[in-house]
């Protein structure tokens, strides 16, 4: 049986399950469309939350990020820490408040349509940024594993999301995401187990990570450090040069992810506060299962790749290009692996020639003595997970499984983001702001139309991604950290915060964050319009990068909101009593 047929079986079977769930769990009311009727079991909601959280960025990119050095563990610490922050400080109280969406909470807590609209704008900006990446990731996964072009792959993913998100709403999405979690976690764990057995002889990947390399007998990470150092790269376990910026970046990721609306609304789907806490606990277990495996895949995957390029050791001849294996040829066709024979010797020299950060200066004379004239291989780190089964010569069914897992990771988060956008438009912008006389039936219709519109826009942006897509990720985290998170925290824990303070805080926090990001990444991300170069010597205090400014924006939001609220009238007694009931029922 060909690999294409195997891939089709795995992907087709998973799609059949998703479609059946969408039909079975079709939403029949606005309550089912927005919060799945508020009757989801905590374990099921925990799995759905984990799938919502573990996006294409997590499934495809996290291992690639960590593979270049454990310095990028800030992503794992920030994202996981943000979930803990959300689960302990926000989720139970938001569930008790009983609203459908984040802007709904902001609008009712501060008794302000303006605050609600600002929250809607922030939500749409954050969600659209993320959904571009999810749809694009799904298109790439389809293109590679189903042997179609990226455009066709993206259109297929849009149709699938349309089927279960528009029909099922939150109810259909919840049960579909639970199924997608099972697919993506198996797709991540199974290759990790194979890799751990292959390199260390240990079945459990998390233990293989800290055990010995089977062939050399050296500790696994010591062996990896030796190999990368011998090729001029920075040690995998190298220290961080700017610890303060890493700290700020981690905190920005924490407060930014704790303010992500598509994850927050998951806690509105359970019956009561107790179940909200239980589902948060289960979700943390399911997320931890993934994130404790990611460093294993990162380190062992990188070592496995380098051992493929240098099969007899880094001091011996490297792979001959004309004898490259099939996986190499396949990924070359995607453009994610590129080779240029700079010294015309027909071999692949893969090393740090000084163009990458933190080179091993001692290696430069060695490379020159060996006749190397520069690095000849470019490998996109995002292929580390998707290509892992092929590089490791694993069975065809593992390749099919990881194809289904990569697609599931993209679609699960995309559906959650699109639902958040749809709910914000239909429930908050139309029903509670512009068209208050909408009936439930009309609101349901507009919700589905909004979902269709969101899918259409997301598909278009996926097909025509803006050139600044990478930069907008910084803007998304900054917006979530500096606008939504402080508004929720103060709305729950500080009764004195009024609508004027909340609005001023969100505008000041988000505005300062956007301003700072534009200074270094270009105004409205237009190339070459940045005021300062994006390098540490130009950062505020020589430390705070644009990626790390979100937490500063959050501090500005808190400060401005408290000052303005104390300088103006108190919230009504009704609002203060509502806050008291949320905190102390």
UniProtKB/TrEMBL annotation:
Ranges annotated as spanning the membrane: 6-25, 46-68, 74-94, 115-133, 153-170, 182-204, 246-268, 280-298, 397-425, 445-463, 469-494, 501-526, 538-564
Gene3D superfamilies in UniProt: Sodium/glucose cotransporter (1.20.1730.10)
Keywords linked to the UniProt accession: Cell membrane, Ion transport, Membrane, Sodium, Sodium transport, Symport, Transmembrane, Transmembrane helix, Transport
Keyword Lyase carried by entry: no
Subcellular location: Membrane
Primary site of residence: membrane
Family annotation (InterPro entries): Na/Glc_symporter_sf, Na/solute_symporter, Na/solute_symporter_CS, Na/solute_symporter_VC_2705, Sodium:Solute_Symporter
Coiled-coil boundaries: none
Pfam families: SSF
Keyword Ion transport: yes
Membrane topology value: Multi-pass membrane protein
PROSITE patterns with a match to the protein in the record: NA_SOLUT_SYMP_2 (PS00457), NA_SOLUT_SYMP_3 (PS50283)
Family: Belongs to the sodium:solute symporter (SSF) (TC 2.A.21) family.
PANTHER family per the UniProt record, alphabetical: NA(+):SOLUTE SYMPORTER (SSF FAMILY), SODIUM/PROLINE SYMPORTER-RELATED
Protein name per its UniProtKB record: Cation acetate symporter
Phylogenetic lineage: Bacteria, Pseudomonadati, Pseudomonadota, Gammaproteobacteria, Oceanospirillales
């Amino acid at each position: 049986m060909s690999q294409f047929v195997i891939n089709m079986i795995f992907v087709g079977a998973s799609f059949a399950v998703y479609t059946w769930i969408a039909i079975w769990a079709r939403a029949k009311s606005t309550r089912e469309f927005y919060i799945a009727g508020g009757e989801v079991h905590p374990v099921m909601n925990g799995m759905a939350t984990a799938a919502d959280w573990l996006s294409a960025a997590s499934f495809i990119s996290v291992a690639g990020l960590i593979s270049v050095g454990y310095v990028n563990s800030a992503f794992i610490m920030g994202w996981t820490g943000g979930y803990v922050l959300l689960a302990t400080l926000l989720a139970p109280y938001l569930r008790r408040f009983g609203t459908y969406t984040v802007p709904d909470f902001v609008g009712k807590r501060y008794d302000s349509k303006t605050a609600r609209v600002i929250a809607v704008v922030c939500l749409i900006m954050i969600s659209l940024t993320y959904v571009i990446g999810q749809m694009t990731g799904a298109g790439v996964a389809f293109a590679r594993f189903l042997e179609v072009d990226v455009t066709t792959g993206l259109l297929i993913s849009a149709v699938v999301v349309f089927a279960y998100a528009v029909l099922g709403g939150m109810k259909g999405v919840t049960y579909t995401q639970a199924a997608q979690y099972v697919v993506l976690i198996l797709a991540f764990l199974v290759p990790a187990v194979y890799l751990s057995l292959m390199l260390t002889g240990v079945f459990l990947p998390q233990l293989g990570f800290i055990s010995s390399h089977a062939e050399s007998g050296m500790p696994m990470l010591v062996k990896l450090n030796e190999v990368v150092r011998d090729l001029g790269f920075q040690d995998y376990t190298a220290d961080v040069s700017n610890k303060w910026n890493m700290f700020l970046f981690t905190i920005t990721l924490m407060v930014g992810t704790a303010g992500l609306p598509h994850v927050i609304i998951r806690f509105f789907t359970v019956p009561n506060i107790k179940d909200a806490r239980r589902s948060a606990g289960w979700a943390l277990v399911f997320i931890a299962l993934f994130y404790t495996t990611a460093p294993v895949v990162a380190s062992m995957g990188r070592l496995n790749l380098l051992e493929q390029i240098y099969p007899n050791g880094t001091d011996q001849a490297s792979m001959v290009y004309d004898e490259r294996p099939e996986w190499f040829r396949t990924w070359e066709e995607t453009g994610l692996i590129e080779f240029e024979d700079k010294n015309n010797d027909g071999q692949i020299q893969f090393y740090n020639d000084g163009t990458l950060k933190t080179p091993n200066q001692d290696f430069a004379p060695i490379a020159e003595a060996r006749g190397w004239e520069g690095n000849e291989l470019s490998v996109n780190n995002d292929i580390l997970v998707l290509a892992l089964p092929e590089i490791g010569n694993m069975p065809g069914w593992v390749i099919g499984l990881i194809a289904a897992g990569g697609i599931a990771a993209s679609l699960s988060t995309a559906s959650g983001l699109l639902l958040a956008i749809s709910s914000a438009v239909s429930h908050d912008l139309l029903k509670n702001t512009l068209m208050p006389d909408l009936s439930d039936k009309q609101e349901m219709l507009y919700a589905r139309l909004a979902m269709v519109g969101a899918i259409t826009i997301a598909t278009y942006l996926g097909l025509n991604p803006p050139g600044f897509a990478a930069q907008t990720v910084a803007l998304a985290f900054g917006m979530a950290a500096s606008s939504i998170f402080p508004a929720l925290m103060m709305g729950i824990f500080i009764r004195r915060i009024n609508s004027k303070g909340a609005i001023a805080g969100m505008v000041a926090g988000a505005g300062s964050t956007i301003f700072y990001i534009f200074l270094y990444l270009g105004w409205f991300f237009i190339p070459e319009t940045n005021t300062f170069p994006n390098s540490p010597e130009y950062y505020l205090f020589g430390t705070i990068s644009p990626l790390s400014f979100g937490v500063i924006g959050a501090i500005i939001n808190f400060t401005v909101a408290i000052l303005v609220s104390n300088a103006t009238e108190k919230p009504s007694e009704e609002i203060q009593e509502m806050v008291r009931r949320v905190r102390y029922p």
